[in-house]
Design a protein that fits this description.
By secondary structure, this protein is an alpha+beta fold. Helices cover 53% and strands 19% of the residues.
Length: 97
């Protein structure tokens, strides 16, 4: 088996890796929380969340809280499984197994 087989190209970018890392340990995170934690711009974060949504690794829920728009993201079951495979592959690569 090739050691790189489970490296997932969707998680190649640091912003996407960060989004998934945050969502793996939290039930959900809203746009502003992700933006602050990752130091991303609005446009940059929006494009990376769209890529993860397109891959069906995250879900997006738009709502209003106190008349203000709020966008909330959560990892899907597929997203969690694929991210775990990706992290395991990286660990094997680092440990040269």
């Amino acid at each position: 088996m090739n050691i790189l087989n489970n490296i997932n190209k969707v998680f190649d970018h640091r912003i996407r890796l960060g989004i998934m890392s945050i969502l793996m340990v939290n039930e959900y995170a809203d746009f502003n929380t992700l933006k602050d934690l990752l130091g991303a711009t609005d446009g940059n974060l929006a494009s990376h969340t769209k890529a993860l949504e397109k891959a069906e690794y995250i879900t997006v829920k738009k709502q209003f809280i106190d008349r203000k728009p709020n966008t909330r993201y959560a990892a899907t079951k597929l997203g969690r499984a694929e991210f775990n495979k990706h992290i395991e592959a990286l660990e094997k690569l680092i440990n040269n197994q």
